[in-house]
Amino acid sequence: MIKTQLSDPELLRYSRQILLPEWDMDAQLKLANARVLMIGAGGLGNPGAQILVRAGLGFLRLVDFDTIEESNLQRQFLFQSSDVGLLKVEVAIRELQKINPWTQLEAINLKVDLTSLPELLADIDLVLDGSDNFATRDLINQACVEANVPFLSAAAIGLEGQIAFFRPAQGCYRCLFGNGLNDDTRQCAESGVLASTTAVIASLQAHHALLYLGLDQVPLANRLLLWNGTTMQQRILKFAKDNNCPICKSSGG
Ligand SMILES: [Zn+2]
């Protein structure tokens, strides 16, 4: 059911956003009707989901297959010491629901693959990826192209991170990175990650999601943002659709 107005408590809660000249009642209502699929409830998913839910997202489907470990607590904001051993999605949804009773939340304990993704994507406006490896991002990309759903990808490791926004008709993750499945196999478990790195990148990803969902703005369309937490430099590189891309060449021309 499409929301056409917000209750008084909701208006009060989101008042600091509605006040903004860049973000009005119309944007807040669009966000209240938006449906997001987030894959990964780890270092990126924790802060990212929390920002979107606090901001007033209407529906969040959160997918992960992991349980909470002691080593997650350094950067995964929604989890406490007493949650170690429990399922990430269940604890995340429990905490997110306490934060915002108006967001509809769905927890799915699953390792995504090409069979499960179409159903997960069926009623979704935007996908946020917070998984921790190239192979999963490549699968999500394929499914998003197939379903014609925009894909906001993010990755963080060490003191570095990146985000990119893909609209299927204008190029995809594979156009940008090629079939580099073995290029960067670093993962936080082996290489380490600073607590602040995932929070910075997840915040940038959530920020871009809000621009897209509320305002229909896509400043990172066909761009890759690279953030270096050692030099504090940010670079934005442009990329074009690869007309020979095996994943998206037949979508949208
Ligand atoms: Zn492509």
Structure report:
The protein is α/β, with parallel strands linked by helices and 253 residues long. The chain has a single domain, classed as Rossmann fold. It is 36% helix and 19% strand. The chain has helices at residues 8-13, 15-18, 25-32, 45-55, 88-99, 117-121, 134-147, 173-177, 188-191, 195-215, and strands spanning 35-39, 59-64, 104-109, 126-129, 151-157, 160-166, 223-228, 233-238. The chain has an eight-stranded mixed beta sheet, with helices on both faces. Helix 7 (134-147) links the parallel strand 4 (126-129) and strand 5 (151-157). Helix 3 (25-32) packs across helix 10. Zinc ion binds next to helix 8.
User: What best-fitting shape do the alpha-carbon axes yield?
Assistant: globular
Q: Which structural class matches the secondary elements?
A: alpha/beta
Q: Provide the spatial order of strands within the biggest beta sheet.
A: 3-2-1-4-5-6-7-8
Terminal Cα span: 33 Å
According to CATH, what is the topology?
Rossmann fold
Proportion in β-strands: 15-25%
Find the CATH superfamily: NAD(P)-binding Rossmann-like Domain
Cα-atom radius of gyration: 18 Å
Mean pLDDT: 94
Number of domains: 1
Which spans have pLDDT < 50 for at least 5 consecutive residues? none
* DSSP summary: helix tally: 10
Helix content: 25-40%
Write the element-wise H/E pattern from the N-terminal end onward: HHHEHEHEHEHEEHHHEE
CATH class: Alpha Beta
Pfam families: ThiF
GO molecular function: nucleotidyltransferase activity; sulfotransferase activity; thiosulfate-cyanide sulfurtransferase activity; ubiquitin-like modifier activating enzyme activity
Domain THIF-type NAD/FAD binding fold: 14-246
Family: Belongs to the HesA/MoeB/ThiF family.
